[in-house]
Amino acid sequence: MIIDFICAFIGTVAFSHLYNVPKKHYMYCGLVGALGYLCYCLADIRTSVTFATFLATMLVVLASRVLTIIRKCPITIFLISGIFPLVPGASVYNTAYYFVINDLEQATVWGINSLKVAFAIVLGIVFIVSIPRQMFTREYWKIWKVQRKKKKVVS
Amino acid sequence: MYNGKIIREEKHNDSQMHRVLDLALKAGRISLRNGAEIFRVEETIEYICRHYGIEEMDAFVLSNGIFLTAYSEGKEVYARVKHVPAGGTHLGIVAEVNDLSREIAAGHVTLDEAYKRLKEIEKMPAKSAVSQIFAAGIGSAVFCYLMRGNVYDALFTTIIAGLLQAGLVFISQYKVSKIITNILGGIFITLCAILASSIPLPFEVNLSNIIIGCIMPLIPGVLFVNAIRDVASSDFISGLVKLLDALLVFVYIAVGVGCVLGAYADLFGGVMI
Q1: With 60 as the cut, is the pLDDT of residue B9 above it?
Q2: Could you tell me the pTM of the whole model?
Q3: For residues B59 and B46, is the Cβ–Cβ distance under 8 A?
Q4: Looking at the partner chain, which of B92, B165, B265 has a beta carbon nearest the beta carbon of A101?
Q5: Residues of A whose CB is below 8 A from B234
Q6: CB distance A80–B91 less than 8 Å?
Q7: Between A76-83 and A104-129, two packed helices, what is the crossing angle to 10 degrees?
Q8: pLDDT (tens digit per residue) in B111-163
Q9: CA-CA distances (angstroms) from residue B42 to A155, B28, B45, B261?
Protein backbone atom coordinates (compact mmCIF):
# COMPACT_ATOMS: atom_id res chain seq x y z
CA MET A 1 0.00 0.00 0.00
CA ILE A 2 2.82 2.41 0.85
CA ILE A 3 4.57 1.53 -2.39
CA ASP A 4 1.32 2.17 -4.27
CA PHE A 5 1.02 5.55 -2.56
CA ILE A 6 4.55 6.55 -3.55
CA CYS A 7 4.04 5.24 -7.09
CA ALA A 8 0.85 7.23 -7.54
CA PHE A 9 2.66 10.30 -6.19
CA ILE A 10 5.51 9.96 -8.67
CA GLY A 11 3.17 9.22 -11.56
CA THR A 12 1.01 12.24 -10.86
CA VAL A 13 4.00 14.54 -10.60
CA ALA A 14 5.39 13.16 -13.87
CA PHE A 15 2.16 13.82 -15.72
CA SER A 16 1.69 17.26 -14.21
CA HIS A 17 5.16 17.99 -15.59
CA LEU A 18 3.91 16.96 -19.04
CA TYR A 19 1.04 19.44 -18.68
CA ASN A 20 3.49 22.24 -17.85
CA VAL A 21 2.32 22.82 -14.30
CA PRO A 22 4.60 25.34 -12.50
CA LYS A 23 7.20 23.66 -10.30
CA LYS A 24 5.91 25.15 -7.05
CA HIS A 25 2.68 23.14 -7.33
CA TYR A 26 4.27 19.70 -7.92
CA MET A 27 4.12 18.62 -4.28
CA TYR A 28 0.42 19.33 -3.98
CA CYS A 29 -0.44 17.77 -7.35
CA GLY A 30 1.33 14.61 -6.32
CA LEU A 31 -0.36 14.61 -2.94
CA VAL A 32 -3.82 14.97 -4.50
CA GLY A 33 -3.18 12.15 -6.95
CA ALA A 34 -1.72 9.85 -4.32
CA LEU A 35 -4.57 10.52 -1.87
CA GLY A 36 -7.11 9.77 -4.59
CA TYR A 37 -5.40 6.52 -5.47
CA LEU A 38 -5.12 5.50 -1.82
CA CYS A 39 -8.84 6.14 -1.36
CA TYR A 40 -9.50 4.09 -4.49
CA CYS A 41 -7.43 1.17 -3.20
CA LEU A 42 -9.09 1.21 0.22
CA ALA A 43 -12.60 1.46 -1.18
CA ASP A 44 -11.87 -1.21 -3.77
CA ILE A 45 -11.46 -3.83 -1.04
CA ARG A 46 -15.12 -3.71 -0.02
CA THR A 47 -16.97 -2.12 -2.94
CA SER A 48 -17.05 -2.31 -6.74
CA VAL A 49 -14.48 -0.57 -8.94
CA THR A 50 -17.07 1.94 -10.09
CA PHE A 51 -18.04 3.05 -6.61
CA ALA A 52 -14.43 3.15 -5.51
CA THR A 53 -13.63 5.43 -8.45
CA PHE A 54 -16.60 7.62 -7.56
CA LEU A 55 -15.44 8.02 -3.96
CA ALA A 56 -11.83 8.63 -4.99
CA THR A 57 -12.88 11.24 -7.55
CA MET A 58 -14.95 13.06 -4.93
CA LEU A 59 -11.94 13.13 -2.62
CA VAL A 60 -9.66 14.37 -5.40
CA VAL A 61 -12.01 17.18 -6.38
CA LEU A 62 -12.59 18.17 -2.75
CA ALA A 63 -8.85 18.29 -2.08
CA SER A 64 -8.28 20.30 -5.27
CA ARG A 65 -10.92 22.83 -4.32
CA VAL A 66 -9.44 23.34 -0.88
CA LEU A 67 -5.95 23.65 -2.38
CA THR A 68 -7.22 26.17 -4.93
CA ILE A 69 -8.14 28.48 -2.09
CA ILE A 70 -4.92 27.90 -0.17
CA ARG A 71 -2.52 28.11 -3.11
CA LYS A 72 -4.52 30.75 -5.03
CA CYS A 73 -4.37 29.21 -8.51
CA PRO A 74 -6.88 27.64 -10.92
CA ILE A 75 -8.40 24.34 -9.85
CA THR A 76 -7.50 22.79 -13.22
CA ILE A 77 -3.90 22.36 -12.12
CA PHE A 78 -4.67 19.98 -9.26
CA LEU A 79 -7.75 18.38 -10.73
CA ILE A 80 -6.31 17.18 -14.02
CA SER A 81 -3.19 15.68 -12.51
CA GLY A 82 -5.14 14.23 -9.59
CA ILE A 83 -7.67 12.42 -11.77
CA PHE A 84 -4.95 10.76 -13.83
CA PRO A 85 -4.40 7.65 -11.66
CA LEU A 86 -8.14 6.96 -11.78
CA VAL A 87 -8.52 6.99 -15.56
CA PRO A 88 -9.60 3.51 -16.70
CA GLY A 89 -6.70 2.90 -19.10
CA ALA A 90 -6.62 -0.82 -18.44
CA SER A 91 -10.32 -1.36 -19.13
CA VAL A 92 -10.13 0.59 -22.38
CA TYR A 93 -7.18 -1.52 -23.43
CA ASN A 94 -8.98 -4.75 -22.52
CA THR A 95 -12.04 -3.66 -24.50
CA ALA A 96 -9.97 -3.07 -27.61
CA TYR A 97 -8.02 -6.28 -27.06
CA TYR A 98 -11.04 -8.58 -26.71
CA PHE A 99 -12.72 -6.78 -29.58
CA VAL A 100 -9.79 -7.56 -31.83
CA ILE A 101 -9.51 -11.23 -30.92
CA ASN A 102 -13.27 -11.54 -31.55
CA ASP A 103 -14.28 -12.33 -27.99
CA LEU A 104 -17.24 -9.98 -28.15
CA GLU A 105 -18.72 -11.07 -24.85
CA GLN A 106 -15.62 -10.07 -22.89
CA ALA A 107 -15.29 -6.92 -25.01
CA THR A 108 -18.80 -5.84 -24.04
CA VAL A 109 -18.16 -6.54 -20.37
CA TRP A 110 -14.97 -4.47 -20.36
CA GLY A 111 -16.47 -1.76 -22.54
CA ILE A 112 -19.44 -1.27 -20.25
CA ASN A 113 -17.08 -1.40 -17.30
CA SER A 114 -14.92 1.42 -18.64
CA LEU A 115 -18.01 3.48 -19.48
CA LYS A 116 -19.25 2.98 -15.93
CA VAL A 117 -15.94 4.12 -14.48
CA ALA A 118 -15.89 7.15 -16.79
CA PHE A 119 -19.39 8.03 -15.67
CA ALA A 120 -18.38 7.62 -12.03
CA ILE A 121 -15.62 10.17 -12.62
CA VAL A 122 -18.13 12.51 -14.26
CA LEU A 123 -20.55 12.24 -11.34
CA GLY A 124 -17.82 12.66 -8.76
CA ILE A 125 -16.62 15.86 -10.39
CA VAL A 126 -20.11 17.27 -10.94
CA PHE A 127 -21.20 16.68 -7.34
CA ILE A 128 -18.30 18.50 -5.75
CA VAL A 129 -17.95 21.23 -8.38
CA SER A 130 -21.54 22.30 -7.81
CA ILE A 131 -20.90 23.17 -4.14
CA PRO A 132 -20.93 26.98 -4.02
CA ARG A 133 -17.53 28.61 -4.04
CA GLN A 134 -18.09 30.62 -0.86
CA MET A 135 -18.32 27.48 1.25
CA PHE A 136 -14.61 26.81 0.72
CA THR A 137 -13.46 30.11 2.23
CA ARG A 138 -12.76 30.60 5.91
CA GLU A 139 -14.90 33.73 6.17
CA TYR A 140 -18.02 31.80 5.25
CA TRP A 141 -17.68 29.49 8.23
CA LYS A 142 -16.83 32.37 10.57
CA ILE A 143 -20.02 34.14 9.55
CA TRP A 144 -21.91 30.88 9.81
CA LYS A 145 -20.68 30.36 13.38
CA VAL A 146 -21.61 33.90 14.42
CA GLN A 147 -25.05 33.55 12.91
CA ARG A 148 -25.65 30.26 14.65
CA LYS A 149 -24.68 31.77 17.98
CA LYS A 150 -27.08 34.65 17.38
CA LYS A 151 -29.89 32.25 16.65
CA LYS A 152 -29.17 30.37 19.87
CA VAL A 153 -29.27 33.58 21.86
CA VAL A 154 -32.58 34.58 20.27
CA SER A 155 -34.22 31.26 20.92
CA MET B 1 -10.99 74.74 -31.82
CA TYR B 2 -13.38 73.64 -29.19
CA ASN B 3 -15.04 71.11 -31.45
CA GLY B 4 -11.73 69.76 -32.51
CA LYS B 5 -10.72 69.18 -28.94
CA ILE B 6 -13.90 67.31 -28.14
CA ILE B 7 -13.52 65.12 -31.17
CA ARG B 8 -9.95 64.36 -30.26
CA GLU B 9 -10.96 63.46 -26.74
CA GLU B 10 -13.69 61.19 -27.99
CA LYS B 11 -11.27 59.52 -30.32
CA HIS B 12 -8.93 59.01 -27.43
CA ASN B 13 -11.73 57.48 -25.41
CA ASP B 14 -12.68 55.22 -28.25
CA SER B 15 -9.16 54.01 -28.73
CA GLN B 16 -8.90 53.47 -24.97
CA MET B 17 -12.00 51.29 -25.08
CA HIS B 18 -10.64 49.38 -28.04
CA ARG B 19 -7.41 48.76 -26.23
CA VAL B 20 -9.22 47.42 -23.18
CA LEU B 21 -11.29 45.08 -25.27
CA ASP B 22 -8.28 43.94 -27.24
CA LEU B 23 -6.55 43.18 -23.96
CA ALA B 24 -9.55 41.22 -22.70
CA LEU B 25 -9.76 39.31 -25.96
CA LYS B 26 -6.06 38.53 -25.92
CA ALA B 27 -6.14 37.32 -22.33
CA GLY B 28 -9.16 35.15 -23.12
CA ARG B 29 -7.54 33.72 -26.22
CA ILE B 30 -4.30 32.83 -24.46
CA SER B 31 -5.97 31.07 -21.57
CA LEU B 32 -8.53 29.26 -23.77
CA ARG B 33 -5.81 28.03 -26.06
CA ASN B 34 -3.77 26.58 -23.22
CA GLY B 35 -6.49 24.53 -21.64
CA ALA B 36 -8.74 26.74 -19.50
CA GLU B 37 -12.42 26.02 -19.02
CA ILE B 38 -15.08 28.15 -20.70
CA PHE B 39 -16.35 29.89 -17.58
CA ARG B 40 -12.82 30.86 -16.55
CA VAL B 41 -12.28 32.56 -19.92
CA GLU B 42 -15.60 34.39 -19.67
CA GLU B 43 -14.75 35.47 -16.15
CA THR B 44 -11.33 36.75 -17.18
CA ILE B 45 -12.80 38.83 -20.00
CA GLU B 46 -15.49 40.19 -17.72
CA TYR B 47 -13.07 41.13 -14.92
CA ILE B 48 -10.82 43.03 -17.29
CA CYS B 49 -13.67 44.87 -19.02
CA ARG B 50 -15.40 45.75 -15.79
CA HIS B 51 -12.31 47.13 -14.13
CA TYR B 52 -11.33 49.39 -17.03
CA GLY B 53 -14.78 50.91 -17.13
CA ILE B 54 -16.71 49.26 -19.92
CA GLU B 55 -20.34 49.44 -19.03
CA GLU B 56 -22.00 46.80 -21.13
CA MET B 57 -20.34 43.81 -22.62
CA ASP B 58 -21.21 40.30 -23.64
CA ALA B 59 -18.74 37.52 -24.20
CA PHE B 60 -19.72 34.23 -25.72
CA VAL B 61 -16.98 31.66 -25.62
CA LEU B 62 -16.88 28.36 -27.46
CA SER B 63 -14.20 25.70 -27.34
CA ASN B 64 -12.51 27.23 -30.39
CA GLY B 65 -13.70 30.80 -30.63
CA ILE B 66 -14.53 33.96 -28.69
CA PHE B 67 -17.35 36.37 -29.61
CA LEU B 68 -17.16 39.72 -27.88
CA THR B 69 -19.33 42.81 -28.17
CA ALA B 70 -19.20 45.92 -26.04
CA TYR B 71 -21.19 49.10 -25.84
CA SER B 72 -20.73 52.31 -23.92
CA GLU B 73 -22.96 55.37 -23.94
CA GLY B 74 -22.17 57.61 -26.92
CA LYS B 75 -19.36 55.49 -28.33
CA GLU B 76 -18.96 53.02 -31.11
CA VAL B 77 -20.20 49.50 -30.68
CA TYR B 78 -17.29 47.15 -30.61
CA ALA B 79 -17.60 43.61 -31.90
CA ARG B 80 -14.95 41.03 -32.51
CA VAL B 81 -14.94 37.36 -33.36
CA LYS B 82 -11.75 35.52 -32.64
CA HIS B 83 -10.97 32.05 -33.86
CA VAL B 84 -8.86 30.14 -31.36
CA PRO B 85 -7.25 27.05 -32.83
CA ALA B 86 -6.48 24.27 -30.41
CA GLY B 87 -2.98 24.42 -28.95
CA GLY B 88 -0.96 22.34 -26.56
CA THR B 89 -1.75 22.25 -22.87
CA HIS B 90 0.19 24.68 -20.71
CA LEU B 91 -1.44 24.97 -17.31
CA GLY B 92 1.28 27.36 -16.13
CA ILE B 93 0.05 29.95 -18.61
CA VAL B 94 -3.54 29.42 -17.50
CA ALA B 95 -2.52 30.06 -13.91
CA GLU B 96 -0.55 33.19 -14.84
CA VAL B 97 -3.39 34.72 -16.86
CA ASN B 98 -5.74 33.94 -14.01
CA ASP B 99 -3.45 35.71 -11.56
CA LEU B 100 -3.17 38.69 -13.88
CA SER B 101 -6.93 39.05 -14.19
CA ARG B 102 -7.29 38.89 -10.40
CA GLU B 103 -4.68 41.61 -10.00
CA ILE B 104 -6.40 43.75 -12.60
CA ALA B 105 -9.70 43.32 -10.80
CA ALA B 106 -8.01 44.37 -7.55
CA GLY B 107 -6.71 47.47 -9.34
CA HIS B 108 -2.96 46.93 -9.09
CA VAL B 109 -2.18 46.93 -12.81
CA THR B 110 -2.43 49.66 -15.43
CA LEU B 111 -3.42 48.97 -19.00
CA ASP B 112 0.09 49.26 -20.40
CA GLU B 113 1.52 47.03 -17.71
CA ALA B 114 -1.14 44.46 -18.39
CA TYR B 115 -0.25 44.41 -22.08
CA LYS B 116 3.40 43.97 -21.25
CA ARG B 117 2.77 41.16 -18.79
CA LEU B 118 0.44 39.38 -21.17
CA LYS B 119 3.14 39.44 -23.82
CA GLU B 120 5.59 37.90 -21.37
CA ILE B 121 3.10 35.25 -20.32
CA GLU B 122 2.41 34.27 -23.90
CA LYS B 123 6.10 33.64 -24.46
CA MET B 124 6.43 31.37 -21.42
CA PRO B 125 8.33 28.33 -22.64
CA ALA B 126 7.07 24.78 -22.29
CA LYS B 127 9.14 22.32 -20.30
CA SER B 128 12.22 21.15 -22.18
CA ALA B 129 11.86 18.18 -24.51
CA VAL B 130 14.34 16.02 -22.60
CA SER B 131 12.57 16.49 -19.29
CA GLN B 132 9.23 15.75 -20.99
CA ILE B 133 10.63 12.48 -22.33
CA PHE B 134 11.90 11.49 -18.89
CA ALA B 135 8.61 12.46 -17.24
CA ALA B 136 6.59 10.44 -19.74
CA GLY B 137 8.84 7.43 -19.30
CA ILE B 138 8.80 7.48 -15.52
CA GLY B 139 5.10 8.31 -15.26
CA SER B 140 4.08 5.51 -17.62
CA ALA B 141 6.34 3.01 -15.88
CA VAL B 142 4.82 3.88 -12.53
CA PHE B 143 1.29 3.44 -13.85
CA CYS B 144 2.29 0.16 -15.47
CA TYR B 145 3.52 -0.97 -12.05
CA LEU B 146 0.29 0.20 -10.39
CA MET B 147 -1.76 -1.84 -12.88
CA ARG B 148 -0.07 -4.96 -11.50
CA GLY B 149 2.85 -5.12 -13.89
CA ASN B 150 6.20 -6.35 -12.58
CA VAL B 151 9.45 -4.41 -12.44
CA TYR B 152 10.66 -5.66 -15.83
CA ASP B 153 7.43 -4.57 -17.51
CA ALA B 154 7.92 -1.16 -15.96
CA LEU B 155 11.50 -1.04 -17.26
CA PHE B 156 10.42 -1.68 -20.83
CA THR B 157 7.54 0.76 -20.42
CA THR B 158 9.98 3.51 -19.46
CA ILE B 159 11.94 3.05 -22.65
CA ILE B 160 8.93 2.75 -24.97
CA ALA B 161 6.99 5.63 -23.43
CA GLY B 162 10.10 7.80 -23.58
CA LEU B 163 10.47 7.05 -27.28
CA LEU B 164 6.76 7.71 -27.79
CA GLN B 165 6.98 11.08 -26.07
CA ALA B 166 10.02 11.97 -28.17
CA GLY B 167 7.91 11.22 -31.24
CA LEU B 168 5.03 13.30 -29.88
CA VAL B 169 7.30 16.27 -29.18
CA PHE B 170 8.72 15.99 -32.68
CA ILE B 171 5.32 15.69 -34.34
CA SER B 172 3.84 18.62 -32.38
CA GLN B 173 6.03 21.01 -34.41
CA TYR B 174 3.98 20.22 -37.48
CA LYS B 175 0.25 20.43 -37.92
CA VAL B 176 -0.60 16.75 -37.95
CA SER B 177 -4.16 15.58 -37.44
CA LYS B 178 -5.04 14.06 -34.09
CA ILE B 179 -6.30 10.95 -35.82
CA ILE B 180 -2.95 10.19 -37.37
CA THR B 181 -0.97 11.04 -34.23
CA ASN B 182 -2.97 8.76 -31.97
CA ILE B 183 -3.32 5.84 -34.37
CA LEU B 184 0.40 5.95 -35.14
CA GLY B 185 1.12 6.22 -31.42
CA GLY B 186 -0.98 3.13 -30.71
CA ILE B 187 0.69 1.20 -33.52
CA PHE B 188 4.16 2.23 -32.37
CA ILE B 189 3.51 1.22 -28.76
CA THR B 190 2.11 -2.14 -29.69
CA LEU B 191 4.91 -2.96 -32.11
CA CYS B 192 7.53 -2.09 -29.52
CA ALA B 193 5.71 -4.04 -26.82
CA ILE B 194 5.46 -7.12 -29.04
CA LEU B 195 9.14 -6.79 -29.83
CA ALA B 196 10.00 -6.49 -26.13
CA SER B 197 7.89 -9.45 -25.13
CA SER B 198 9.27 -11.68 -27.88
CA ILE B 199 12.92 -11.16 -26.93
CA PRO B 200 14.04 -14.33 -25.15
CA LEU B 201 14.83 -13.12 -21.65
CA PRO B 202 15.37 -15.02 -18.39
CA PHE B 203 12.39 -13.21 -16.82
CA GLU B 204 8.80 -12.90 -17.93
CA VAL B 205 7.56 -9.78 -19.71
CA ASN B 206 3.84 -9.22 -20.08
CA LEU B 207 2.66 -7.68 -23.33
CA SER B 208 -0.61 -6.16 -22.13
CA ASN B 209 0.93 -4.56 -19.04
CA ILE B 210 3.49 -2.76 -21.18
CA ILE B 211 0.81 -1.51 -23.55
CA ILE B 212 -1.43 -0.31 -20.72
CA GLY B 213 1.45 1.67 -19.24
CA CYS B 214 2.56 3.16 -22.53
CA ILE B 215 -0.91 4.35 -23.47
CA MET B 216 -0.86 6.87 -20.62
CA PRO B 217 0.92 9.77 -22.42
CA LEU B 218 -1.65 9.56 -25.22
CA ILE B 219 -4.70 9.69 -22.97
CA PRO B 220 -6.51 13.06 -23.31
CA GLY B 221 -6.76 13.83 -19.60
CA VAL B 222 -7.09 17.61 -19.92
CA LEU B 223 -9.73 17.34 -22.61
CA PHE B 224 -11.79 14.84 -20.64
CA VAL B 225 -11.74 16.74 -17.35
CA ASN B 226 -12.42 20.10 -19.03
CA ALA B 227 -15.31 18.56 -20.96
CA ILE B 228 -16.91 17.38 -17.74
CA ARG B 229 -16.39 20.73 -16.05
CA ASP B 230 -17.90 22.59 -19.00
CA VAL B 231 -20.95 20.37 -18.92
CA ALA B 232 -21.17 20.83 -15.16
CA SER B 233 -21.22 24.60 -15.57
CA SER B 234 -23.85 24.32 -18.34
CA ASP B 235 -21.60 25.20 -21.28
CA PHE B 236 -23.08 22.34 -23.20
CA ILE B 237 -21.86 23.09 -26.71
CA SER B 238 -18.20 23.25 -25.77
CA GLY B 239 -18.56 20.47 -23.22
CA LEU B 240 -20.07 18.02 -25.66
CA VAL B 241 -17.61 18.89 -28.40
CA LYS B 242 -14.70 18.27 -26.04
CA LEU B 243 -16.27 15.08 -24.70
CA LEU B 244 -16.69 13.74 -28.22
CA ASP B 245 -13.13 14.73 -28.99
CA ALA B 246 -11.84 12.87 -25.92
CA LEU B 247 -13.88 9.76 -26.69
CA LEU B 248 -12.68 9.77 -30.29
CA VAL B 249 -9.07 9.96 -29.11
CA PHE B 250 -9.69 6.85 -27.01
CA VAL B 251 -11.10 5.17 -30.11
CA TYR B 252 -8.09 6.17 -32.22
CA ILE B 253 -5.69 4.72 -29.67
CA ALA B 254 -7.75 1.53 -29.50
CA VAL B 255 -7.74 1.29 -33.31
CA GLY B 256 -3.96 1.66 -33.42
CA VAL B 257 -3.38 -0.91 -30.71
CA GLY B 258 -6.10 -3.22 -32.03
CA CYS B 259 -4.80 -3.27 -35.62
CA VAL B 260 -1.36 -4.44 -34.65
CA LEU B 261 -2.59 -6.92 -32.04
CA GLY B 262 -5.04 -8.39 -34.55
CA ALA B 263 -2.41 -8.71 -37.24
CA TYR B 264 -0.03 -10.28 -34.74
CA ALA B 265 -2.66 -12.80 -33.64
CA ASP B 266 -3.42 -13.69 -37.26
CA LEU B 267 0.22 -14.08 -38.23
CA PHE B 268 1.50 -15.96 -35.23
CA GLY B 269 -1.69 -17.58 -33.94
CA GLY B 270 -3.22 -16.32 -30.70
CA VAL B 271 -0.14 -16.60 -28.53
CA MET B 272 -0.78 -13.29 -26.80
CA ILE B 273 -0.82 -12.70 -23.05
Answers
A1: no
A2: 0.84
A3: yes
A4: B265
A5: none
A6: yes
A7: 150
A8: 888 899 999 988 888 888 899 999 999 999 988 888 888 888 888 899 999 99
A9: 45, 7, 5, 45
By CA distance, what is B40's nearest residue in A?
A74
Q: How far apart are CA B73 and CA B263, in angstroms?
A: 69
- Give tens-digit pLDDT for A50-73: 999 999 999 999 999 988 888 888
CB spacing of A96 vs B254 below 8 angstroms: yes
Low-confidence ranges of chain A (pLDDT < 70): 155
Among candidates B109, B90, B124, B89, which has minimal Cα distance to B47? B109
**Per-domain boundaries in chain A:** 2-85+124-138
Mutate: best of B91, B93, B222, partner A, most A CBs <10 A: B91
Q: Are the beta carbons of B257 and A96 separated by less than 8 Å?
A: yes
Q: Is A139 helix (H, G, I), strand (E, B) or coil?
A: helix
Reported as type and span, the H/E element at residue B100 is helix B91-106
Interface confidence: ipTM more than 0.90? no
